[in-house]
């Protein structure tokens, strides 16, 4: 952030506080003082019609309620101020106070961004890796990357452990690694490196550009994230084979980016509400995603004529083999190696417990809903 931007931002907050004090001086002593809310500008990386824009609004609503109306967040869609992939720079520069995005969208600045959600999965889920962020040293590594290595004036937190992302949308069936050869495919981050090594030609596009690119022939297969977003994009209008289950992006969470000066200038309780509101929204987003994603998958199957498949074990095994070849290249970078070592140690410990402790949910599901699950 420039010195002028910092001074402008600090002056804005000081003026807001002074206005509240001046208003208080005009009231009789016993009166309850009304404080004008502090309005913060948050832009997302999502289109106005995407379910994720609702998720961002869920966060804003909780912050306003928890602050008793002292904080209000103006939630804007991608492109309202800056492009979807530019929100990190905008928060750093003080153009935005907050952004709602994913780390992989600033992968172009440093490939290590992809390790905070779209790196090798090692067997842990998104919930496993979100726990690593908060309890396994991930936040300190994230701060080292954003603040020390990149020199950004931001403070970021992760929330909402996403369900593993589908392998995506194809016009025909794909059953083997050989079937993938030559596809022009959309994904982002290290998944691009991974799938290029498996024979695909990859374009990294924001969500809102995917279906138009498919219609123009720029790509002929793609993934984004989930059935609800895919339905909103109109994915079913350009392809009819939808493959769930993949190791290319199996442990991602949302990123909430805050301008550090904004956080420092707020009263400590308000800064805490912004920070811990991420955890509140994470729970709310998870519940909404379970309801909406499952309902929209049902709609895609029954109303839109989509053929829903589970990605073959052959392709899944091929993805793991491709990760095995990619990881040593990533570890040539000392920070990447340190982060991957931390993640591996966490997954080995935590996922061992998770898997040993988990009953076979598939067995129970098949017991009560026989014949429904086609593996």
From TrEMBL:
- What residues does Na(+) bind to? 224
Picking any one GO biological process from the record gives:
transmembrane transport
Q: Which UniProt keywords apply?
A: Metal-binding, Periplasm, Signal
Question: Where is it localised?
Answer: Periplasm
Predominant location: periplasm
InterPro entries in the record: DctP_fam, SBP_TakP-like, TAT_signal, TRAP_DctP_sf
What positions does the entry give for substrate binding? 165, 186, 223, 249
Task: Show the stretches that span the lipid bilayer.
Answer: none
Keyword check for Signal, yes or no.
yes
A cellular component term from Gene Ontology for this protein is: tripartite ATP-independent periplasmic transporter complex
Q: What GO molecular function annotation could you give as one example from this UniProt entry?
A: metal ion binding
| Matching Pfam families | DctP
Q: What is this protein called?
A: TRAP-type mannitol/chloroaromatic compound transport system, substrate-binding protein
From what organism does this protein derive? Answer: Roseovarius lutimaris
């Amino acid at each position: 952030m420039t010195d002028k931007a910092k001074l402008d931002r600090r002056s804005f907050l000081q003026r807001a506080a002074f206005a509240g004090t001046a208003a208080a001086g005009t009231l009789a002593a016993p009166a309850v003082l009304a404080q004008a809310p502090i309005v913060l500008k948050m832009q997302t990386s999502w289109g106005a019609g995407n379910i994720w824009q609702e998720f961002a609004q869920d966060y804003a609503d909780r912050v306003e309620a928890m602050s008793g109306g002292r904080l209000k967040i103006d939630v804007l869609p991608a492109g309202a101020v800056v492009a979807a992939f530019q929100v990190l720079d905008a928060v750093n520069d003080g153009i935005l106070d907050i952004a709602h995005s994913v780390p992989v969208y600033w992968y172009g600045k440093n490939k290590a961004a992809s390790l905070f959600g779209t790196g090798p999965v090692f067997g842990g889920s998104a919930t496993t890796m979100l726990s690593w962020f908060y309890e396994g040293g991930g936040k300190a590594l994230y701060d080292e990357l954003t603040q020390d290595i990149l020199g950004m004036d931001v403070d970021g937190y992760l929330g909402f452990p996403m369900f593993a992302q589908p392998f995506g949308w194809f016009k025909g069936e794909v059953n083997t690694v050989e079937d993938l050869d030559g596809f022009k495919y959309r994904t982002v981050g290290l998944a691009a490196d991974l799938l290029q090594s498996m024979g695909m030609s990859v374009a990294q596009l924001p969500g809102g550009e995917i279906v138009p690119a498919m219609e123009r022939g720029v790509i002929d297969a793609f993934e984004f994230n989930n059935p609800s977003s895919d339905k909103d994009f109109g994915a079913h209008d350009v392809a009819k084979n939808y493959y769930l289950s993949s190791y290319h992006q199996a442990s991602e969470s949302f990123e909430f980016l805050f301008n550090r000066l904004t956080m420092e200038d707020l009263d400590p309780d308000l800064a805490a509400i912004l920070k811990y509101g991420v955890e509140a929204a994470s729970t709310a987003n998870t519940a909404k995603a379970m309801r909406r994603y499952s309902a929209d998958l049902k709609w895609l199957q029954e109303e839109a004529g989509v053929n829903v498949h589970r990605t073959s074990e052959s392709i899944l095994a091929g993805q793991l083999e491709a990760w095995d070849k990619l990881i040593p290249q990533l570890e040539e970078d000392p920070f990447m190696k340190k982060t991957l070592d931390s993640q591996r140690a966490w997954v080995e410990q935590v996922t061992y417990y998770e898997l040993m402790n988990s009953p076979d949910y598939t067995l129970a599901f098949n017991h009560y809903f026989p014949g429904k699950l086609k593996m």
